[in-house]
Design goal:
single chain, 387 residues, alpha+beta, Four Helix Bundle (Hemerythrin (Met), subunit A), Cyclophilin, 3 domains, eight-stranded antiparallel sheet, two-stranded antiparallel ribbon, 10 helices, globular
Length: 387
């Protein structure tokens, strides 16, 4: 088994024909190889777990499951430090699973604790906000309190089918409060990239395609340069009329290749392609790292703040031999498998994730090679773009 794993890794890492593309992502054969690799690693992990029983010094593969809900990932990625709201958030996020397991006693205690916690800390939460956000946060907290009422009723009558939807509605208000608590952008982009557009916050972008619409939540808190590049091009109507030039319904969709010889966006002022660097933040870092992939820095297997764990992950494409050569082409990750444990996705840290499709995921299932983007537009957050 070990030789099978090593063989697959050698194929992936040393055969350039498997993963080389003209300005970007992987060909289908790459994913097929990756799937074999992941499956092999899973089997190998079982062997390693057995070995740990007799050799405690051996290292094991990650065992914690990756969070695959884009909304949870985005909430966790907000740059805030408020233990009260984070505790309420985590408790609400666990409620659908608790309901499926019929742990009604625990759920009753949890919903009571949440209500008490919010009542006791409401004044402090509002006081922690900037002056211009206090009233808005107070409104969101009041809406949250109202949203908890039907959730508590569903728990009382053991209505398992409605707990998920009602807890998610409450979490929407938690996310709004957490966003409004951010007082300022948390870091400064390195000087060599400061002249590029930057998204200092979040924005919503609607893609209208021939097969339906989808909304992307673009996260500038964790990838401001790549997010800024994308939102700026959306505002320039760059993507209107472009087609999906690479696609596999099981793995990814890619677009952003303009007509003509250029692979990316040509700045009309400089007459040159405007490029952005790879930009990835780790959980223990205040700011992203720039310029090098996880593979180059020996961080393969580490989970970034914005991972390739959710169906509909949106990332910047770049040439195979230049992670700092992204421009206008981006891809939407579709592969979602229970065989992908945390830390084993080979894309994490090697491409810049700058957002997630949070509405219209059914549209992604319909899109194919050659389908067209009719329009792309910023529907909120345009004020966070700095050029």
């Amino acid at each position: 088994m070990a030789s099978l794993v090593v063989g697959a890794m050698v194929n992936l890492n040393l055969n350039p024909k498997l993963d080389r593309v003209d300005h970007t992502f992987y060909k289908i054969s790459w994913f097929q190889q990756a799937t074999i690799l992941v499956a092999s690693l899973m089997v190998t992990s079982l062997i390693m777990v057995f070995a740990i029983a007799t050799q405690p010094s051996m290292a094991a593969l990650p065992t914690k499951s990756a969070i695959k809900d884009a909304r949870i990932i985005l909430r966790n990625a907000l740059p805030i430090d408020n233990d009260v709201l984070r505790d309420v958030q985590r408790t609400l996020e666990q409620m659908p699973r608790q309901a499926n397991l019929k742990r009604w006693g625990s759920l009753k205690k949890d919903i009571e604790t949440i209500s008490q916690t919010l009542t006791q800390n409401k004044t402090d939460v509002i006081a922690a906000a900037n002056r211009d956000r206090k009233e808005i946060i107070a409104e969101h907290l009041s809406s949250l309190e109202k949203a908890l009422v039907p959730l508590q009723e569903a728990i009382e009558i053991k209505d398992r089918n409605n707990v998920k939807a009602l807890s998610e509605k409450s979490l929407d208000y938690i996310g709004l409060v957490e966003s409004d608590l951010i007082k300022e952008f948390p870091f400064t982009v390195p000087a060599q990239y400061a002249s590029l557009p930057q998204l200092k916050g979040r924005a919503l972008v609607e893609l209208v395609t021939e097969k339906g619409s989808a909304i992307i939540t673009v996260d500038g808190y964790n990838a401001p340069v790549n997010a800024g590049q994308f939102v700026d091009l959306v505002q320039k109507h760059f993507y209107d009329g472009l087609t999906f030039t690479r696609a596999d319904e099981n793995y990814y969709l890619q677009t952003g290749d303009p007509d003509g010889a250029a692979d990316g966006y040509i700045d009309p002022d400089t007459k040159k392609e405007r490029i952005v660097p790879i930009e990835v933040r780790l959980p223990d870092q205040k700011a992203p790292s720039y310029g090098k992939t996880f593979e180059e820095t020996g961080l393969s297997g580490v989970l970034p703040v914005l991972p390739f764990a959710a169906f509909g992950t949106v990332a910047m494409a770049h040439p195979n031999d230049n992670p700092n050569g992204g421009s206008s082409q981006f891809f939407i990750y579709l592969f979602e498998s229970e065989l992908t444990p945390a830390g084993l996705n080979l894309l994490d840290g090697n491409y810049t994730v700058f957002g997630y499709v949070t509405e219209g995921k059914e549209t992604l299932d319909k899109l194919r090679l050659g389908d067209k983007i009719l329009t792309a537009r910023v529907i909120s957050g345009a004020e966070n773009l700095v050029k």
